[in-house]
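To assess whether ligand presence alters the predicted conformation, the chain was also submitted together with 1,3-dihydroxyacetonephosphate. Input:
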Amino acid sequence: MKKKLFLIWREEKKLCVREEDAMPRRPILAANWKMNLTSNQSKLLVDSILNNLGAPVNCEIILFPSFLHIPMIAEKIAGKNIGIGGQNLYFEEKGAYTGEIAAFQLVDSGCTHVLIGHSERRHYFHENYETVNKKVLRALSAGLKVMLCVGESLEERENNVTEMVVVDQIESAMQNISHKDMNDISIAYEPIWAIGTGRIATPDDAAHVHQIIRKALGRIFDKEIASKICILYGGSVKPDNIKEVMAEEDIDGVLVGGASLKTDSLLELMRFLN
Ligand code: 13P
């Protein structure tokens, strides 16, 4: 669906403002580096962000590097208004869970955020509705902000069950989440078939799913929460399509994989939103 009239895409400030309630949703650029980059490559990327952009003003930038690089990056970005998060965590508080990472350890390493329920985790590591919900609850109780990922597979899209799948993912992840908790949650809609494939959902299609998500949150919580929450799009976002994606009313930011690994494209995406 195209932009509604009450939305102003303010070119100068890049804020999505709904005139009816004047509630701005600050755009977010989240970079998911997945299982890529050496420590030195991560450092160079962060240096180039800091040298070229300094601290972001008009958008929120959140980096999701390898766990191993978090302390080094957290130190570099301290005081620069840039968020940093883990790409996952384990839902138990602590204990004998060899190889897992606890929420408190992310906080202790300097994390502000965590990604939960990425489709790669759901697919390769069999995360299900219950474990995703437990992870969300654990992250919030440790003081982390959660970016919850949802999205349908190609088969689900072709079978016209996108809405059902995405709403199920949202409803199950939101079990026992309070209205107050919602201040610390954003949603990333990532159609699985658009991740790393170069295929991008048309902005209309993506916007339609974003509206479904917002509507579901309105039903689960209330209208105010639905209108305040940031819903990001992810899946083959690049400098040459970000403008089109961000022009949609219900798309409040982007979660970027491949294009966030190279300095030029990362900076271009950041400059666009900032
Ligand atoms: P790509 O931008 O490489 O398609 O990855 C998207 C993604 O999975 C971000 O979490």
